[in-house]
Amino acid sequence: MKDFLIQKVYAQPSSITGVRKINPTSDTGISFDLLLQNILNEIVSPIIYFLLALAVVYFVWGMMTFIRNADSAEKRKEGYSHMLWGVVGIFIMISAKGLINLILSIMGLN
């Protein structure tokens, strides 16, 4: 858990023993860019990749349903629907990752 979002925090001891506080006027403190980059790398990207994996699994499940029940029109329609929504989910997750990278490069953070 160490260095999860904030890599380095320079702290000064306070008057109360054992309690530290961050000096907000220090140049060695945390920058917003570093915090944003760490949040994106440690929280947002894994969520996007997880949802992308779920969309792929949903697509494969629909494909298996479609192939397994080739004789039933209703089950094929259900499998086709799963495959379609899986492709939509894959497209949305790839687009979200691309938009995040585009915004970061426009802001000069990438």
What does it look like?
The chain is mainly alpha-helical and 110 residues long. The chain has one domain (11-107). Helices cover 65% and strands 5% of the residues. The chain has helices spanning 32-68, 73-107; strands at residues 11-13, 20-22. Strands 1-2 form a two-stranded antiparallel ribbon. Residues 7-14 have low confidence and may be disordered.
Q: What is the general shape?
A: elongated
Radius of gyration: 23 Å
In terms of DSSP E residues, the strand content is 5-15%
Order of helices and strands: EEHH
How are the strands ordered across the major sheet? 1-2
Low-pLDDT stretches are 7-14
Portion in helices? 55-70%
Number of H/I helices: 2
Find the structural class using helix and strand composition.
Answer: mainly alpha
> What summary fits the major beta sheet?
2 strands, antiparallel
- Determine the N-to-C terminus distance: 24 Å
> Roughly what is the average pLDDT, rounded to an integer?
81
In a nutshell, what does this entry contain?
The protein is mainly alpha-helical. It is built from two helices and two strands, in the order E-E-H-H.
Keywords:
110 residues, 2 strands, two-stranded antiparallel ribbon
Sequence-ordered SSE layout with sheet pairings:
Layout: E1 11-13, E2 20-22, H1 32-68, H2 73-107
Helix pairs in contact: 1-2
